[in-house]
Fold these 4 entries.
Entry 1:
Amino acid sequence: MTGVNLTAWILGLGLGLMTLLFIFRIVLTWYPQIDLNRLPFNLVAWPTEPFLIPMRKLVPPIGGVDITPIIWVGIFSFIREILLGQQGLLIMMSR
């Protein structure tokens, strides 16, 4: 496994995991009574909160709905596609 392939594999795993965590975070917003500081919910909240705090300053809730996790799903999906998609930058470098 070359360095580019290893980097692509690790980056793909990390970006995929963050996308999944943000999708779980979107589902958790449907249940506002859940305490995000208790297990197992803190396993989703703690890695995503550092991304959400600055984004909430830029994008306020719309109609009382926090859309920042949706924005981050889009950002991570876009980055993953640009770097690791069928014609992504890292994939093209490994050929």
Entry 2:
Amino acid sequence: MAMKIRLARGGSKKRPFYRIVAADSRMPRDGRFIEKLGTYNPLLPKDSEERVKMDVERIQYWLGQGAKPTDRVSRFLEAAGIVEKKERKNLKKGEPGEKAKQRAEEKAAKAAEAPAEEATAE
């Protein structure tokens, strides 16, 4: 059985609340799970202690049993110091779009022309 440590969504519309659960990877996101391991409330401020609560001992048990955390849960575990940080690649996300590149080229061209015009005016 392929185990995952993942988030199961609760809460009402536009008011998300998540449970951190150990579940079979074939089950639906909000479906059957084996054990509740903690909670995550994204509506609270980032520095709040109530934002992420985890049962560290049980999470370590499930990691020992071969459960794989999802990306978001692994970030929580890294912040808590349970799992070592992974190297992540953000290849295209930080790169500007086509229109932004064109605007930057036009701006650079105008900046290059401006000093040349000032030198000829004197």
Entry 3:
Amino acid sequence: MGPAKLQAPKGTFDILPPDGRRRDSLRAVADDLLGRAGYGAFESPIFEDTDLFARGVGASTDIVQKEMFTFEDKGGRSLTLRPEGTAGACRAYTEHGMHKRPQPVKLRYWGPFFRHEAPQAGRFRQFAQIGAEALGSDDPSLDAELILLLHELLERSGVESRLRLSSLGNAGAREAYGEELRAHLRHRESELSEDVRGRIATNPLRAFDSDHEGTRAVMADAPRLIDRLEPEDAEHFAEVRALLEDAGVSYELDPTLVRGLDYYTRTVFEFESPSLGAQSGVGGGGRYDGLVEQLGGPATPGVGWAAGVERILLAGGANLPSERPVYVAIATEAHRRTAFALARELRGAGLGAQVEQAGRSMKGQMKHADRLDASAVVIVGDEIEVKDMSTGEQVQVADAREAIAVVAGAAVSG
């Protein structure tokens, strides 16, 4: 009996080349879109001090209480695989003195994150996110800009979505409202789920997220934070909405939207896709004006979002650009080195190119070019011929330079 078959751990998955190409395309779209808006590439460590997330995400959240992958290093320090990206960005902002740079500081990131959740469609224990953060300004145009950038990213990725939008006001207003909500919950405590009862003191707003029937009945007539915004916060939120309306982006005002993290203030938003079923959230975020200070930095407003890569691809991905390669076919063994060199010249000219490397017959090579969805096939023999795979037209060329010119035309038309 041989050794046990090894598999990827529960809640993780391998990315094979066809899916890898879609992810590459999505990242290219995100980098282009966010880069043109001034969001610079940023990376934080995959693991951080556990205290960063306990303080930043919130000790009463599901993430901190139930979902973090936490371990001790050889020095006895408690470290955690990052469950989200905003806390790390805020830590880096403070650590590297980014408050001394021109504000706002705009960051974009892409990478793996980790949560110990029950795996299901669109939800994994290791997953990738695209994120964007703007730190150092409370201007409502930043809130609107980030929402519009995520809207455009989803649109360009072929994702049908709807936008839910609300405001949580400032920390003081939220705390006052929290006391009002706690009184409402305690008055009808027997109707609540055990989980919500346990959070009345620490995080009563999470009751809005409950699927428990009794809790939902209690929350149906609960007071709404959006009705208790202070004038400055109401004005800020009105400006965000006006900018979205100017851009022609529709939204649903949802006063029950609280998001799952403790650090949000003012604007909160979430994009949902009907094609994802129960796990419909594809991306979202909001403003977190007190988080940097909470983590030991200077008072710094901030706003940002994160979107799930797997969820975007599950919900759409049909519109993502995909480069069609050029395939270099070899007529006889004597032409192998010429074909190999021509493939290198095609790549040097900025074209994707693959050369025959499995000993196929010419008929087999043409079938393989079809499987690759090649835009063109360059057949290297005593002469060099280029076949446009979209039209079927085949022409003879004098040399590699002419082949590149013809292939470039076929790639554009394809």
Entry 4:
Amino acid sequence: MRLRRSTASGLRNVLLIFDALNAIERFQSFRARPTGDLSLRDEEGRISITPTSVRFIFGGDEGDTLRWVECAVEIDRDDHWARVMRFLHRYAAANGMEYRDSGTGASS
């Protein structure tokens, strides 16, 4: 995961990287148009965010093995950013990860 703030627009950007997706693992079709929302759930409830872009990264010998999926989200409101950050901190703690501010080297 990467967190950035655009110096030009002031928008905060979150890049989520997924190693697996349930839709792919269960062989669901991608022919139908997706709803476009990403649903995140934690003890505070549900967050529904709309990605600004989604990239499927393939590799392997034949180039047809899904390696990961990148989902970019732009967040413009301070209250939405605070809520997403609380979710990400909880997720990191529950999965043995930590957040580090690259500007200071300190983890928060």
